[in-house]
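It is worth pausing here to work through a concrete case rather than discussing structure prediction in the abstract. The textbook approach is simple: state the sequence, then state the predicted structure, then interpret. We follow exactly that order.
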Amino acid sequence: MAPWRLFVPVSMRALRAVLLAGALGVLSAGLAHGQGDGSVTNNPDLLRGSFSPFCEPAMLCSVAENPPPPVPAPVASMAPEPLAPAAPPPLDNPAPVPAALPSAPMVYPLSPSSPWRAGYGIALRGAFVHARGANRYEALLIPNASLRYSGAGTEISLSGDATLVQGLRREFRIGGATLDGSLAHALGSTTRLGLEGALALERDDPQGLDVTSSGVATAPLRLDASLQGALTQQLGLFDLTGTLALDRGERGETRLASGGVLDNSGENRTRFSGGMRLGYALTPLLGVFVAGEAGRDEFDAVDPALGIRRSGWTYAARAGATANWQERATLEASIGTGWRTYDASLPDTRSLLYGLALGYNPDSTLRLRAALDTEIAPGTGSGAASTDYTLSLEAAYKVNQWLGLRGTASGSWSEAQGTGALTRRYTAGLGADLVLGPHSDFALDYRYGWRNDPAATPREADEHRVSAGVSLQY
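Step two, the predicted structure:
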């Protein structure tokens, strides 16, 4: 695509809409009493068979290694907010507001002696989007709230947010809403319990990268819910972790501009899974582990492309090594095999599985992360199972107490078994966060996304997004 097409003339009405959204954000900064960007980072490791080394407090991966840490006193902090665990976010995620990295969210006690902490805030954004040869303008309102508890050996966290989108000459829509909860509890000096749950509702723009059909008037509503529990037992130099998980995904109808409707019920499924992981500490810095997982996918309806259901079992076994040098440099590498069987007359699939995760945090101003992973999925379209590869890169740098810079890049490749069809998706983004005061900041972001899907119409699509606005956090 020629670069000059990004700078096509726009109407004065469109320009006024973008300026108005930005003006609202700046005006609200003067009334701010919080800090943050109003977005909530989900845990992409929720259903992983092996835990990532990039663990945050109260996540299941940290339960396998450390007891719940105490919550610090509720004072304003200029330290960088931790990045999400190293697994690439969905490349078709339309949420236009990345998590702000230069400032940690603020929480306040409900009473002077209460172990509970509460916080809430809002983000205002104006966005310009160039996709599929057309421009669109959006004003976004992103409220959020959180509640945390820190007691004797117990950590509880509950958070949620929503993205409300008003486009120019487009109807109002709820772009997405998320609710996340976690619990980490020390049952004893060597036994720990962890629970995590997540609920997400999402509807993309009809011209978004996630929409693979042409002539769409309303994109489908997507619902994803998950629940996972983990129990870890320390046995000297060994640690044993068992996990159980339940996941539910639903896809609503796609409404076309011609008045037709596309049924997506063939994608609705429930997944049950369980796994075990045994680790051994070779030295205080190095460790090894073996892990296994089994899961069943139960689909609600027949897939129209295959004429049968995709229900079946998936198994995976891995062995790997971990390293952690003073929390400044971390590594996890694994290799193994995975296979999938179907209830119907579809061929079984086997594939080599491997993963690598690297983290480097030399000081409080710089955070670098990279991750590569593979898995076997039930497949889509006319293909049976697929082998999915995901790669993500993340960087955050705090220039000073007022300015933070961040960047991300990710890619995914899905290879359909038997047909050789390859679906590719890439995203890259840059962002800057400027602290306006102790309770507010200003964010500026650019994001590029591209996909190539043989089953989509059109097959290839890309998107440029520029957004800016103010975040308030109480």
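Step three, interpretation. Residues 12-29 form the longest helix (18 residues). Residues 3-473 form one domain.
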